[in-house]
Structure prediction request, 281 residues.
Amino acid sequence: MYAQNTRNEMSTLDANKPELMRSRESFNGVADLYDRYRRGYPTDVLDAIGKMADIGLGSRILEIGPGTGQLTRPLLERGASVMAVELGQDLAAIARRNLGHFVRFEMAVLPFEDWPLPNRPFDTVISGTAFHWIDSQIRASKSARTLRPGGMLVAIYPHQVLGDDGGFFIDSQRAYLKWGLSTDSKWRPPSEHELSAVYQDIDQCPDFASVKRHRIRKTRRFSMDEYIGLLRTDSLILTLSEPYREGLLNDMRRCIDSYYAGTVSRTFVYEIVAATKKPSL
Prediction:
């Protein structure tokens, strides 16, 4: 989500295509870095999710793609029980280490597409940045089949948007051009008003009675080490061979250190999509 020229295209790709499978599995290869540098969600985003889905003590939640537990922990701390389905074995091992002291936490390690449906339905299905990696032909309908009537599917997407970054985007884009991750010298992130709604397959799924969207804008600051560490977990940058990847990251490091006093900012609009399953007839 943090790559300069990511344009939300993953939400429209077929998860069975080999290049997408390689990309979504790439996070497992940097599991330790993912745990160290991927921040959790801002408090007001968590509060909005909790309110929209009525998450609290006793809530039964299925989480798709928890990574190392960035969203899982605050759900558990709110009193929910969480069953997490994670593709990556190394990510899952760290999540178990981070969250194993919660008695209401369980984990299955396999793709969500292959996960067997439960005998008892959940109150909420929730997914953060993992949802756009799931096959768009089945993610909404299979989520609905795991929910009780009146239960809710919640998917979160952090759009990178134009913000007050002091010119860092323009300067850093040169590195993406130099190392072959962009061919468009004029590309820029969209403004908030230019964003298109994500996960429109949820709107089209006949199992849901209503779909609501809520957006929260946040600017987040990173030290040079934090930002470089974050880029080391970016699926686009992970497609580069090691010499090219290190070349790009070294250029980014020099740019931040020389011109931005060692800190940079990125502005995100967190889009929360909440869909309510139709009641039983």
